[in-house]
């Protein structure tokens, strides 16, 4: 499908974020409930774009992760809404590669996920642009990054992977190039799976909206992505998953650090399953967001100052 994302005639652009769907290999009741939660959110919100921030499936110990992945994508594909998916740490943990899962994504005509540059770390580092309602000018940039799996064992650091310096340099270069092309800094959002260390600070310094039910499971090494985003000045908010009992938003140095709401039933987590909804307005630097729960209720509405 040719990329042609635009703000609507009423000036709005709506994104639904699903995260940590964790479909298993067998067709369990938990997975059927997850699919129902996805369909409910899409029916209620009628988004312009779907973004999945990783861990669509369990892959370790699964006979054929490709089968699981196709099942996970089914309720998204049937919506015929443009969509992208970033990889989480469990998607290609075993038995399948990111490249193989990317190929499955790209079987769908409505998938906008790109492989991204081969010379930098990860699979699925790319940027989408959203034009004005007339399709004339770029008004919004959406960066998707691969946050990896585990820290390189040879370094002896342990814990989760971090977004690498060449990925950060790529983001900064693309941001600058887009600003030069458009003639002004383009407001942006960023999506990836594993939270960066600044998520913990955003909660501590407050105020925050939403709940924190577990520790922030970020990498042990801070690779500088947040600093680069602050310096560039384009990213208004970042959106992650990974920590199923966290769904809060905290603002740090002008950037909203946002968790999605866990979507999958086939995994841990005390929160009602659901999705995060992000709504932007053409010409305004800012966004409003809320969580749509599986029972249809809305919780934790939040609006940035300029939304």
Give structural notes.
This protein has 307 residues and is an alpha/beta fold. The protein has helices spanning 29-45, 65-77, 98-105, 165-182, 198-205, 225-232; strands spanning 5-6, 12-18, 49-53, 83-86, 126-131, 138-144, 188-191, 208-209, 235-240, 249-252, 255-259, 274-281, 288-293, 298-303. Strands 1-5-6-7-9-11-10-8 form an 8-stranded mixed sheet, with helices on one face. Strands 4-3-2-12-13-14 form a 6-stranded mixed sheet, with helices on one face. Strand 5 (126-131) and strand 6 (138-144) form a beta hairpin. Helix 1 packs parallel to helix 2 (65-77), helix 2 (65-77) runs parallel beside helix 3 and helix 4 (165-182) runs parallel beside helix 6. The chain is globular, with a radius of gyration of 18 Å. The chain starts with a strand and ends with a strand. The mean pLDDT is 96.
